[in-house]
Amino acid sequence: xxxxxxxxxxxxxxxxxxxxxxxxxxxxxxxxxxxxxxxxxxxxxxxxxxxxxxxxxxxxxxxxxxxxxxxxxxxxxxxxxxxxxxxxxxxxxxxxxxxxxxxxxxxxxxxxxxxxxxxxxxxxxxxxxxxxxxxxxxxxxxxxxxxxxxxxxxxxxxxxxxxxxxxxxxxxxxxxxxxxxxxxxxxxxxxxxxxxxxxxxxxxxxxxxxxxxxxxxxxxxxxxxxxxxxxxxxxxxxxxxxxxxxxxxxxxxxxxxxxxxxxxxxxxxxxxxxxxxxxxxxxxxxxxxxxxxxxxxxxxxxxxxxxxxxxxxxxxxxxxxxxxxxxxxxxxxxxxxxxxxxxxxxxxxxxxxxxxxxxxxxxxxxxxxxxxxxxxxxxxxxxxxxxxxxxxxxxxxxxxxxxxxxxxxxxxxxxxxx
Length: 418
Known about the structure:
This protein is an alpha/beta fold. Helices cover 43% and strands 13% of the residues.
């Protein structure tokens, strides 16, 4: 049965509306992962079961395409290395995010009676959007509340509301506590608040990980001789799940997790040998990063044995967004372009590299700003001063959402340099 009806990707991504067909009843043999229990890496059979389930419910088997740009890695003192980059386009998934896979698998394996008072989840946008989008098909689930950190921009809140979510903004430390402790923040909501009756769903649950990790099976089916796969580092459940399954099917495939330099929880933890606080700066790459690796995720990450963290800059991510649009007409959000940024910088090595473009929900105003940045760069030889302006401008636009001010700064700098 088709979970999503016959609506087009554009209709679903932009309007947040489902077709009127009801969602099939979740499987009776589903088991909920209690929040008091540790995260368990999904087995290969868990992922294969999830793949069948997602196929039944109409989740998109997204395309894998080659990047239409010739890349040669040049390293000082070494011979040039060829690299073939392939794109796993989760930006063409329902809700334009890979998180739809995990949300569907969770709902399909959880008894309805556990969700009769609604759902609540902490999210930076993508998981909450996918979960509320799916929940709106289930008449037996009254609502989905999403805790959103207050530093998130208006575009994410709008997408959530369009998907049917009840958006509740929290101060970042309150939101982070909900994510770390896997609960509704007790000091934010009183004991009698009805939100405590809602079923709490953590984005890093085993059922969600199994759904998201179906991406690994599709990559190996479409590109069996892949050498390396690069994904963004989110909560760790996706990257560790992918690594765990790859080790069972094709252990010679490397799995790297990409991070932005303004927030490197995985790199910091790997360097220290334990989850440690890192500097976390809000940027346009708002779907990844955090203050530290979630404590309950550290053991699974170590067990899975992913190869390394690849750290890239905001500017490299902007360039990757531009390459995706100009070469393959793919629109990617900051987090979704981070793996490609790492591959283009040569951090993932040579051979056949598959980058997972995890999402395409980027603010149109921001995307037009990126276009102006690259237009400006093409007008200026060297453009070192412009890069400084770009960096401060992006930080400004993230804090104040003032895209017009950013464009004005860049335009004035271009005119001055010319």
